[in-house]
Amino acid sequence: MSTGGDADHEVCGMSVAIDAVGGKWKLHLMWVLAEGTQRFGQIRRLLTGVSEKVLAENLRQMEASGLVHREIFPEIPPRVEYSLTELGRELSVALRPLEEWGDRNRNRVPGRALPPSA
Fold first, then answer.
1. Do residues 50 and 44 touch, judged by C-beta distance below 8 A?
2. What is the mean pLDDT of residues 62-79?
3. For residues 29 and 43, what is the distance between their CA atoms, to the nearest angstrom?
């Protein structure tokens, strides 16, 4: 990775990855969808604290980025399922070491320690 200036930032691979999953919810969405195909309501239940509007917006952005596939089934009411594309699965694999690092170092990062078990 080059660090020569703003022009380098635009082509840096890390910038591309961060743009794809940046924000509060996209990494969480990657984690949920890595488990398999999910419906909107299932995702919302798994990601406590996210509003419908924000969830829909993030899913649309990830779909536009080619990370998420949205499939609408012609039923009444319509059923919509979300899954990772091949590109999304590849990114999910690349993110796994980051998650493992976080699990290993959770107690070393100030303010992120697990609460003591009861």
1. yes
2. 94
3. 8
